[in-house]
Write a structure and sequence with these properties.
The chain is an alpha/beta fold and about 240 residues long. It has one domain: Rossmann fold. It has 8 helices and 11 strands. The strands form 2 sheets. The protein has a 9-stranded mixed β-sheet, sandwiched between helices. It has a two-stranded antiparallel sheet with strand order 5-8. Helix 3 packs across helix 4. It is globular and about 50 Å long. The mean pLDDT is about 100.
Amino acid sequence: MKPLLILKTGTTLPAIAEARGDFEDWIGEGMAFSSDEIEVASVYEGDSLPDPDTLSGVVVTGSSALVTEKEDWSERSAAWLPRAIDREIPLLGICYGHQLLAHAVGGRVECNPLGREIGTVEVRFGDSAKDDELLRVLPDQISVQVSHVESVVKLPPGATHHGASAGDLNQAFAFGTCAWGVQFHPEFDADIVRGYIRGRRALLVDEGIDPEALLSAANDTDHGTALLRRFGEIVRTRAE
């Protein structure tokens, strides 16, 4: 099988990386892909992007960068994503990747009008998700981990809205037959999101958010892993 590309747009916090690894480790584990089946392109460090025809699937990671800053590596990646979509290669954008996908195909990303969203949250899916190839394996409401300050405030033309949370109106969408964006982090567990809460503690306090309450409320669920596992199945099936 052709490799799965993890289009890496940033890295996790240093303390978390030292203890637990990084985005590509958690995504590969969640999808049940071995390291031999994965190619990583750290575009934020200047890595080039391969010809989409050489890939079985693409996952675009989260980042501490902001899509609205339109850094060169980010805009280069945004210009590349439609090439993969045109070839009907399964593509999953996570957090920054979700926003970058929306930006790449005509949506709009801005500072989240509902403010910072971090911790364990409930995402509710609409009826459209019941027939979606990726999301239909999940219940109508799921618990997942989040950490972001920007959001997709306008979906791309032709996109299907699938999910929302109290802190973000666009938690999940599909574009075409092969591309999905999720604002939440399916690869995070409660320990990882607690690391983000601790790492952002000073910012949270400045914004009037209680980090201790968020730490207490963080909890593990299997919904994120179920989504990643399903995406892995889609990649393998389409590669056959």
